[in-house]
Design brief:
The protein is of the alpha/beta class. It has helices spanning 2-17, 58-67, 99-104, 121-131, 142-146, 158-165; strands spanning 21-24, 44-49, 76-79, 82-85, 105-110, 139-141. It contains six helices and six strands; from the N terminus they run H-E-E-H-E-E-H-E-H-E-H-H. It has a six-stranded mixed sheet with strand order 1-4-3-5-2-6, sandwiched between helices. The termini are far apart. Bound molecules: zinc ion (ZN).
């Protein structure tokens, strides 16, 4: 009986750790990265990587957007089971590098697990859970908008494998 309880506890705990932990902490209106523009209709979701900095936390990335005063940010930042939402999805964010992309696409940044830019298995699982909460629209890369090497590890045939893992191929 005790063993059964213990097993149940372990199972519940490991299950809990693998569930997406979404925190909404919107960037204040009027910050330089605030586009002040409404995203009328979500037509796609754009995946990014945050660069070769696996040690960053989602808050570090958000702080950088806010403090660098640059015209860049995205809606979500994913790392393992963590999701930090920085903008509501009905607001335009500067992430795609072109007007059409910004005006129609929700941006998701993923913090990679290594400098090559690979996403961890847990990040991929979380990304899938997050995508399931968003409209069913094409999942594309920053690379598909402008040719920028983003997300770097997936600017090749690995992208199809990733889409498969996300249940979108
Ligand atoms: Zn990007």
């Amino acid at each position: 009986m005790l063993l059964l309880k213990l097993l149940k506890l372990l199972f519940t705990r490991s299950k809990k750790q693998e569930t997406m932990n979404l925190v909404q902490k919107f960037i204040p209106d009027g910050t330089p990265c605030d586009t002040k523009k409404k995203l009328e209709k979500i037509e796609s979701i754009t995946i990014h990587w945050t660069g070769p900095y696996p040690g960053q936390s989602p808050s570090d990335v958000r702080d950088w957007w806010v403090n660098s005063k640059g015209e860049a940010s995205a809606h979500f930042i994913v790392k393992d089971s963590e999701v930090l939402q920085c903008w509501p999805t009905n607001k335009v964010a500067w992430h795609a590098g072109c007007k059409q992309g910004n005006d129609t696409s929700v941006g998701i940044e993923v913090i990679p697990m290594n400098v090559e830019g690979e996403f961890s298995k847990l990040s991929i699982k979380t990304l899938r859970q997050l995508l399931d909460t968003l409209p069913l629209v094409p999942i594309i890369r920053h690379y598909d908008w402008t040719g920028k090497e983003c997300p770097k590890y997936y600017c090749n045939s690995r992208w199809e494998q990733l889409l498969k893992e996300l249940g979108r191929l």
